[in-house]
Amino acid sequence: MKKTIITLMMILAFTSTVVFAQGSKETAEESKVITMATNAEWPPLEFVDQDGNVTGFEMELLQKFSEVSDYTFTPINIAWDGIFAGLANGAYDGIASGVSVTEERKSAMEFTTPFLLVTQSIIVPTATGFEAAKIDELSSKKVGVQIGTTGDLMLQDSGYDVIIKSYDSIALAVEDLLNGNLDAVVTDSVVAGEYVLGNDAFKGKLKVTGTSEENVEPIAMAFPKGDTMHVEIVNNALKALEENGTMDELKAKWGIL
Predict the structure, then answer these.
(1) Pick from 4, 110, 122, 150: CA 20 to 30 A from residue 85's CA?
(2) Per-10-residue mean pLDDT for the chain, 257 residues long?
């Protein structure tokens, strides 16, 4: 009898475990909320407005995804440093933060269809008279970048004698540039355009003098390696927004050419 009871308890425990595991799997598959990490330091792609709201081109793009799919896309504002580690650890479903598609990153994560093409641009203060049309003209100069970005990596791999100063955000780099502590800042072309042309606080104080046109970078959203389900969901949403004209409207609204 005792043996029978023990056996029955083992069967019940095993059954409960299977049911729980199946329930967890179904919950994960049926979840309609997709969390997307973003570093809101990249206007006009993503930034925090005067009211404290995270907004920008990619943030509105996520809203439009929610409208044309059966899923709700929810952004989470976090620091750039560690954003890829968080993706690998399952802290969120994906990343929507001006992520450049590189061969190194492709080996570690999945990317959606690219929706922007950018280059690395050089920003300088207008007051100094210094101009650099190409990256090699930054040799011996103090150049600000956001740590861990493709601009940072490009300068490190350039082979030129550039004095690289890394910052937690591109805004801090631009601030140091205006304070006279840097000769230039290197960042994505769409971000450079926003600081020079789209931000009233910097008009007349900054200018873009050059762009690394040989390094054209596609921008996409990133998901963990092997997560083709979320990639397909986003790709279908991107296709729908391209076909109904919404993508062009958003790019025009945020001054993205």
Answers:
(1) 122
(2) 36 38 41 94 93 96 97 96 96 97 95 95 94 92 94 90 95 95 94 84 90 84 97 98 97 87
